[in-house]
Amino acid sequence: MRILLLLFILSLSACQSNWNLDPVHVKESLEKDVHQWTEKKVLVSTRLGDFEMELDARTPLHRMNFIRLVKLGYYEDRYFYRIIYVTGIQGGGEYMDRLNYLIPAEYIDDLKPVRGSLAMARYDEGNPEQASSPSEFFIVTDTEQAARFYKKYVVFGKVTKGMEVVDAIFKAKSYDEKPVIPVKFDIKVLPE
């Protein structure tokens, strides 16, 4: 039994190492394989329905990183683990599943958070450059509240179909910002 457990842990860490990038050379690592991460549309499937998102080409590092993680299977069987009061839903790699690098900030003046915006979360501690989390993202459900995120979180896409599904996730019963019944999701790249 211990051998099986050890093999499982080793295989899990081998997978995670494929997801991680060199934390010092994130931009170079993503740009090196830019031809592999060209897609811009994804489908998010949940028990409450599906929705589509389009990623903005003006934020190439965020777009490439997101597509890269989708293609590597990082977002399979993940959860929307946070219902942000009045603001939106958050999902991705939570706590122990965090990756070891950050994405340099790519703020675009006319890419402001609005209802349906897709943005990356950010760790505040020890992050004066306001670099983004590589895997934790959120979707805005309230435009009025979204204004406070401008140039604090990088917006890198938007929901293009199925916003009613995002609203249904947002309205799911929660306690202390955690959904009572977890909302699992899978993300797949859509053909252009």
TrEMBL record:
InterPro entries reported in the protein's UniProt record: Cyclophilin-like_dom_sf (IPR029000), Cyclophilin-type_PPIase_dom (IPR002130), Cyclophilin_A-like (IPR044666)
Q: Which residues form the PPIase cyclophilin-type domain?
A: 48-183
Q: What does the organism's lineage look like at the top?
A: Bacteria, Pseudomonadati, Bacteroidota, Cytophagia, Cytophagales
Gene3D superfamilies to which the protein is assigned, alphabetical: Cyclophilin-like (2.40.100.10)
Q: Which organism is it from?
A: Aquirufa rosea
- Which Gene Ontology terms cover its molecular function? peptidyl-prolyl cis-trans isomerase activity
Q: Which UniProt keywords apply?
A: Isomerase, Rotamase, Signal
**Record-given protein name:** peptidylprolyl isomerase
Annotated signal sequence is: 1-19
Q: What is its EC number?
A: 5.2.1.8
